C-alpha cells in the first residue's frame, strides 16, 4: 500500500484507533517484541533474549493444579460438574455471581492478613487489572483531566489509564536518596505544576506493593496520602494487585486498614485488585474494582458490561477461593517460594557485581 493510500485509510478511522496512546512502539514493548522474535533457551538458543519485562508469578501452579484435580465439580467441563453447565453458560448480568463476589471479598481480606474485611456488594468485575484501572478512570475523570503518579511507576499506565479515556499522567518526582519515599512536598510540587499548566488534577494513583520497586508503603506514608487527597478533595486509587506477594518484613499495610482509623472522606478511596499476580492467573482476566463510593460502584458495575469476567471462570474460582484450607496453604507457600526465589536471584546478581535495592514484595528486583 502506498503512503497516500495509507494516509487515506487512517483518515477513515477514529482518532483513538490511529493514535500512539497504546504505546506499542515504546521501548517497553520493544523488549517484548525482541523476546518473541528470539527467545532465550539455555541449550537451544543461549544467545537469545531473556524476558525480564513480564511480572508473572508461576511458582505455585502445582497447588492450583492439585486443587483442580481434587475438585472436579468446580468445572462445568467434567462429568462431575457438567450438571451446572446450563446455569453457568446462560446469560449472566453484570453484577456477577454472588458466590464469586463473596469469594473475592474473602480472598482480598485473607491476602491482607485478615486485618480488614470487604463487602461483596462493593466488588465490581473487570477484564484484568488493565480493564479495572481504565474503568476507574472512566468513572472519575474526563478527557484532559490528570492523575498524579509517584515515580518510578509501571510504564504501561500510559496505555491503561489514558489511551481511550484521554486522562493524563502527571509524575510525582520521588528520589532514590530517600528510597523513593512519597513525600507531601513532592505531591504538592506535582499538583502545583499541573495547576500552573491549567491541568485539572482529579486524583492520585499508587501501586502498593510497588511496581517496579517491590516495596510496601508504610502507614505514615499512606496516612499522608489520605490527608493530601482529602485536603485537595481529589481521589486516591490504590492498585493493590501485589497484596499477597509480600515475602519478608515489613508487613503489608493496605489502604483499607489505614482509613479505618482516620477521619477522611471514604468516597474518595478506590482499590484496584486482580488475581493475575497474587495467584499467577493473568490469562483468566480477573480484575476487580472495590470502591467506598456508592456512585462509583453503581456506575462502574454498568461499565463493567464491556469487560466482564466469564461466568465459567467465576464459577470455578468461587469454589477455589472459598476453600479456606487451600487459600491458607496457597498464601503461605507462595510467600515462602517468592522469598526463596528472590534470595537466589539477588544473590546471583551480587556475585557478578550488581547490587539490588532492598525489597520485600512483588515480583521485582531493582538494581543500581
Descriptive labels:
alpha/beta, 7 strands, 14 helices, 368 residues, Aspartate Aminotransferase, domain 2, seven-stranded mixed beta sheet
Question: What's the quick description here?
Answer:
By secondary structure, the chain is an alpha/beta fold.
Share of helix among residues?
40-55%
Main beta-sheet strand count, sense and barrel state: 7 strands, mixed
Uncertain spans: none
Strand order of the largest sheet: 1-7-6-5-4-2-3
What's the CATH superfamily of the domain at 72-325, by name? Type I PLP-dependent aspartate aminotransferase-like (Major domain)
Average pLDDT metric: 93
**Could you say what the CATH topology of the domain at 72-325 is called?**
Aspartate Aminotransferase, domain 2
Q: Radius of gyration over alpha carbons?
A: 21 Å
Structural class, by secondary structure, is alpha/beta
How many helical elements? 14
Task: Return the string of H and E elements.
Answer: HHHHHHEHEHEHEHEHEEHHH
Based on DSSP secondary structure assignment, what is the total number of beta strands? 7
The rounded distance between the terminal residues' Cα atoms is 46 Å
Shape field: globular
Query: Regarding CATH, which class of the domain at 72-325?
Result: Alpha Beta
Beta-strand fraction estimate = 5-15%
Under the CATH scheme, the architecture of the domain at 72-325 is 3-Layer(aba) Sandwich
